């Protein structure tokens, strides 16, 4: 690990690389896809990761003590690719998450919020954090459900997406029942997505839940996709 790490130099290097490979035509299309909510360099995921891979490597990345500074500074920038880099950098620390890291995750969810960042943070950061620190799960889950922030609520629905057999179905179904009447696409879609993913592990349990609860047509349709496909084969 580099001892003389400079947050400013690290970010300057990243911005310099992305600027040199910016593609205005791609940027226009990417901004349009994201409803013009964010500015882009025009770098697709594979190219972006290849260009910045060396900055993600252990010898070059920031020490954990300065990770928060790097991520918050990157998050303050306009270009969306810098936010993607920040999320992926954070994921590199998943085996070394500290108790306070959840606050940084919440900051990222609440700021520059849209599905592309929130979904990654939910699955790959928050989900892993609660595996490491399960004692804090219920406290934050309850806060998020009551927050009236659709992105925190979406996180509560999605953080177990990769849990499979470890999914706490009681918690998942309880979260869904508390959020199912919210007339918001990103909540209804997340309900369906969480059920669809869990149905790969427990199809009968998911189908029974959907049948016995009044969910929106969107949530129901999404939640039953895998189950219906399996029945048709």
Task: Explain this structure.
The protein is mainly alpha-helical and 233 residues long. Helix content is 68%, strand content 0%. It is built from 13 helices and no strands. The protein has helices spanning 7-20, 24-33, 45-56, 64-75, 80-91, 101-110, 115-132, 137-146, 150-158, 169-179, 185-199, 203-212, 217-232. Helix 11 runs antiparallel to helix 12 (203-212). The radius of gyration is 19 Å and the shape is globular. The N and C termini lie far apart (52 Å).
Q: What are the defining features of this structure?
A:
233 residues; 68% helix; single chain; mainly alpha; globular; 13 helices
Overall radius of gyration: 19 Å
Could you give the count of β-strands?
0
Helix percentage: 55-70%
Straight-line N-to-C gap: 52 Å
Question: Briefly, what is this?
Answer:
The protein has 233 residues and is mainly α.
Summarize the SSE layout with pairings.
Layout: H1 7-20, H2 24-33, H3 45-56, H4 64-75, H5 80-91, H6 101-110, H7 115-132, H8 137-146, H9 150-158, H10 169-179, H11 185-199, H12 203-212, H13 217-232
Helix pairs in contact: 1-3, 1-4, 3-5, 4-5, 4-6, 5-7, 6-7, 7-9, 8-9, 9-11, 11-12, 11-13, 12-13
């Amino acid at each position: 690990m580099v001892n003389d790490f400079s947050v400013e130099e690290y970010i300057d290097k990243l911005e310099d690389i992305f600027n040199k490979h910016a593609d205005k035509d791609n940027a226009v299309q990417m901004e349009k896809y994201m409803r013009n909510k964010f500015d882009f360099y025009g770098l697709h995921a594979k190219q972006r990761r290849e260009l910045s891979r060396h900055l993600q490597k252990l010898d070059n990345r920031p020490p954990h003590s300065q990770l928060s500074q790097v991520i918050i500074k990157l998050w303050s920038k306009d270009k969306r690719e810098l936010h993607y880099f920040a999320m992926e950098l954070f994921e590199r620390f998943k085996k070394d998450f500290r108790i306070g890291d959840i606050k940084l995750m919440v900051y990222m969810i609440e700021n520059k919020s849209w599905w592309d960042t929130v979904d990654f943070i939910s699955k790959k950061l928050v989900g892993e954090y609660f595996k490491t620190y399960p004692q804090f799960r219920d406290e934050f889950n309850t806060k998020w459900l009551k927050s009236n922030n659709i992105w925190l609520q979406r996180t509560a629905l999605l953080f177990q997406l990769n849990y499979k057999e470890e999914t706490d179905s009681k918690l998942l179904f309880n979260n869904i029942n508390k959020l199912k009447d919210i007339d918001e696409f990103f909540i209804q879609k997340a309900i369906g997505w969480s059920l669809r993913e869990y149905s790969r592990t427990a199809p009968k349990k998911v189908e029974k839940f959907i049948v016995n609860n009044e969910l929106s047509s969107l949530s129901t349709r999404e939640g039953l996709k895998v189950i219906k496909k399996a029945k048709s084969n």
